[in-house]
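Example 3.2
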Amino acid sequence: MSLLDVFRLDGKRALVTGGSRGLGRSMALALAEVGADVIITGRTASTLDATAAEIRSRGRTAWAIEADMGVPSECEAACKRALDDMGPIDILINNVGNRVENVAIESEPLETWQRLVDLNLTSCFIGTKLVGGAMVARGKGGRVINIASISALIANRGIAGRHYETAKAAVLHFTRCAAADWAPHGVTVNAICPGLFMTDANKRWNETRPEVIKAIVDNIPMGRTGEPGEIGPLAVFLASPAANYVTGAAYVIDGGYTLW
């Protein structure tokens, strides 16, 4: 076996939540490139179908589940469907999440807080519990990769609504706790902490709050935002045999933003 062979995922099956667009799409395509069959979830049939077609064009099998993973009941149903109809699943990427509201702590309604905590944190718990738990029960190991954020490590400047920072910080510690619990079972649990990537959501932020995006870019040592395709290789590493001895880790990928 050559060194590059340990990055292959032939014969493996992955579930990527929110895998139809943005960073989720990039990671789903990267896993397919190295041999994995991929299940993706998303809210929009058209983007699900388009990304599934891209996966198939790489010679892999693709399944699409239309669901809002930020709604706990839908998230649970989607995970159960993936396990029952498309499993077994070897790799889980809990990718769903977003900063939707820009509202001060003192003004944020409880319903908004709960909805966004469900989107960014509860979805990760449910996926890990059901899909990761099935890996433990199978007894053949597995990989759980949680997409946190550099917002788990810092308080962002110029942006209100601390639901996002709070939920992502919880995702990061939940990752460590699950890693400790499941290490004896051969199931690794790691986190990726992206900085500013120019996904569609951040392009919208750039249209409505360009000063916020500019302030971030001005403080990135590399002087630019990340491109979605740049996160795929990191996800492949954590999903592959190359990362057999890696668990409970958090990989920052932010162009150096959190160095200052």
